[in-house]
Amino acid sequence: MSLIDPSLAAILVCPVDKADLTEDEAASRLVCQQCGRRYPVRDGIPIMLIDQAEGGSNE
Ligand SMILES: [Zn+2]
Q1: Which of these, 30, 36, 39, lies nearest to 58 by C-alpha position?
Q2: How remote is the CA of residue 59 from the centroid of ligand 1, in Å?
Q3: Which residues surround ligand 1, an ion (CB under 5 A)?
Q4: DSSP designation for 54
Q5: CA of 43 to the centre of ligand 1 (A)
Q6: How far is Cα 36 from Cα 34, in angstroms, rounded to an integer?
Q7: Enclosing domain of residue 35
Q8: Most-buried pick from 3, 32, 56, 57 (CB within 10 A)?
Q9: Is residue 12 included in any domain, yes or no?
């Protein structure tokens, strides 16, 4: 069970640093491996907007 379509997940990267993302299914978030920003997923759609992300405010 995935938050989003696996083929979509495979091409998604963090818009800040282009790093890979990890799904956090419990929190419905995609977590950046590089900067730690967390992007919300709503109804299977990842919201890849920097100003919608949580965390990473020091970068
Ligand atoms: Zn990042």
Answers
A1: 36
A2: 9
A3: 14, 16-17, 19, 32, 34-35, 37
A4: B
A5: 22
A6: 6
A7: 6-52
A8: 32
A9: yes
Residue 34 domain-assigned? yes
Q: Does residue 20 lie within any of the structural domains?
A: yes
Q: CA dihedral in degrees (20, 24, 27, 29; nearest 10)?
A: 20
Q: Is there a domain that residue 57 lies in? A: no
- pLDDT over threshold 70, residue 59: no
CB distance 21 to 10 below 8 Å:
no
- Number of domains observed in the structure of the chain: 1
Specify the pTM: 0.87
Output the pLDDT for position 56.
74
Q: How far is the CA of 52 from the centre of ligand 1 (A)?
A: 13
